[in-house]
Amino acid sequence: MDSTTDAWLRNRRRLRLTQTATSGAFLLPIMAVFVILFAVPFAQTIYYAFTDFSGYSTDVSFVGFANYAKVFADPALMQGLAFTLLYAIATTVLITVCAIPLAIALNQRFVGRNAVRSVFFFLSVPSMAILGIVWQYIFSPLDSGVLNTIVRSLFGADAVLWLSESSLARGCVIFVGVWAGVGWHATLYLAYLQAVPRDLYEQAEVDGANAWQKFVAITLPQLIPCIVVSTFLLMTAGLKVYDLPYTLTKGGPGFATNTLTQSIIVQGIAQGRADLGSALAVIFTVAVAAVVLAQLALANRLERTLS
Questions:
Q1: pLDDT above 70 for 6
Q2: β-bridge mates for residue 51, sequence order
Q3: Tens of pLDDT along 250-288?
Q4: What span, in angstroms and rounded, lies between the C-alpha atoms of 260 and 258?
Q5: Which of 271, 293, 290 is nearest to 81 (CA)?
Q6: Which ranges does the record mark as transmembrane (predicted)?
Q7: Which domain covers residue 27, as residue numbers?
Q8: Which of these, 76, 126, 166, 183, is most buried using a 10 Å CB contact count?
Q9: Do residues 132 and 245 make contact, with C-beta atoms less than 8 angstroms apart?
């Protein structure tokens, strides 16, 4: 009996080692890609952030935290950080608030349901750069702008400075971001809604629950995993946004719609200031990590509360 047990334990250990080695072999290419494309460049970025590296000369000097001090002393860069956070938070909240009711509506049975679903999904198919160019023409502050033409025809009002006034420009960028993302995320929520058992709703109806009570007690808890995924994607995309504000407003008026990614590209590449660009990149990475971790912690707490 003891020899049989020992043999079984040896086979068990051998099988476990084989499985571990196999898993490690599959993970090696992923780890290699991570090290080459992220870890090494990020380490170089941290190093350059403490030097006066211009991006061209190999003769660099250590400057300590001087680059970080310049970043935080530059009002344009701070304005870019503020708008990036505003855009990420606003688009995440607004898309989530709009996408869930839209998904519930698209989950109902009506004539042409598949066609309507396709229309909302394809709103997000064009790239953000193309959408920025199209909406730049629509929001043009000139009298010939599409929206200004409609406003003048219906109300006889003067041209509105949609992209020439700071608050309006920020609102326009956020609006286009929400307009482009609602359909895709509604489709994501729709996929989760279709997996919710109909028996739960039928039992709630028998108990006399109304539509709002069914949403709070059944739909919302069932959508928590999807909300976590959707908001995570929205926050990460919003924090690294570049193409939409750049094509729509070029970061203007002034620096009202400037983003951190645009500042990194301009400072680090266009102006040959790799030192400031590296410092910005480090700050950006730390900020993204902090926001994402806070978001995940909040989502886990919400999931525990509603489950």
A1: no
A2: 62
A3: 887 888 888 888 877 776 666 666 777 788 888 888 888
A4: 7
A5: 290
A6: 21-50, 85-106, 118-139, 171-195, 215-239, 276-298
A7: 1-35
A8: 183
A9: yes
Q: Whose structure tokens read 């030192």?
A: 275
Q: How far apart are CA 143 and CA 131, in angstroms?
A: 21
Do 22 and 163 reside in the same domain of the chain? no
Radius of gyration for the alpha carbons in the chain, expressed in angstroms and rounded = 26
Query: What's the token pair of residue 92?
Result: 């995440």
User: The tokens of 93 are what?
Assistant: 């909240």
The total of structural domains in the chain comes to: 2
For 118-155, what is each residue's pLDDT tens digit?
888 887 788 888 888 888 888 888 877 788 888 888 87
DSSP one-letter code for 160 = P
Number of CB atoms found within 10 A of residue 207's CB: 10
| Beta-carbon-side half-sphere exposure of residue 230 (alpha carbons within 13 Å) | 27
Q: Maximum CA pair distance of the chain?
A: 96
Q: Tell me how far CA of residue 188 lies from CA of 93, 196, 225, in angstroms.
A: 16, 14, 11
* Residues 13-60: tens digit of each pLDDT: 777 777 777 777 777 888 888 888 888 888 888 888 888 777 676 677
Q: What is the CATH number of the domain that holds 298?
A: 1.10.3720.10
